[in-house]
Amino acid sequence: MMMTMKTNSKKSNRLPRVRSAIYGQPWMITPDWLEAICEIFERNVALEKIEFEAAQAPTGPGSYLSQEGYSMEGNVAILPLMGPIFPRANLMTRMSGATSIEDFGAQFRHAMANPDVDALLVHIDSPGGSVSGIFEQASEIFSARIGHKPVVGMIDGMGCSAAYLIGSQCDTLYATEASVGGSIGVVMSIEDDTRQSENDGIKRTIIKTGPLKAVGVGPVTDEQVKHMQSLADDFFGKFKSAVARARPFVNLEATATGEVWIGKKLQDLGLVDGITTLPKLLADWS
Questions:
Q1: Over the stretch 150-162, which tens digit does the pLDDT of each residue have?
Q2: Model-level pTM?
Q3: Domain 71-185+242-285 has CATH 3.30.40.10
């Protein structure tokens, strides 16, 4: 799916690195969350400052976070996969209360090596995120299936797109009856700021090599859109292959539509293995 965003900020040339990490890059996230991330960015640029929300302390079972970034409930390590997913801790993770897949991976490896951990539970409440690092992390979790520690996924609110991909690679995956999951697909947002620059009295001369260099800088051409669609399709193919690898019984023709489903429907489609709650799942290990 391709999405075009309109921006009104006169400060659109600020924070170019953050901007390039949002626009013109493939995402495995629900479209409404990509739009929300774009709006957060544009709002803060318009204000010429970045507003950060205070981190919320985790609550519920296993709420004490260790210095390794995961909590313990008995001998079960609970790894949080919360909010939008970004490759590493940066400005955007702080802006949106997101997860760094780099940090998540470090937590996963630490828990796997920790002799006090008998099982890992990936606690998921995320709309998905960037494609960067997601497939590598998914493969690492899938490879852990041959180990002696079970890895269980628990969708507790939202487990969509990249977050669903991570959860699907676990030995087993559960959801609460009101949780939303799926959204198997790729979305991209391309920004064309030509008219805005003209309105602001800015004349821009773009020097580049090749028609597909600097997509989103200046006018967006049909050739560029076609190229970006091809890129999205390639990632979509990788997404479906990864799900098929871990859950070969899932009918991807019926489920890789970008749709989301709730609770029992996720189980009926084979996207999760059962419906439960986090406390009950933890109680089963005690």
A1: 999 999 999 999 9
A2: 0.80
A3: no
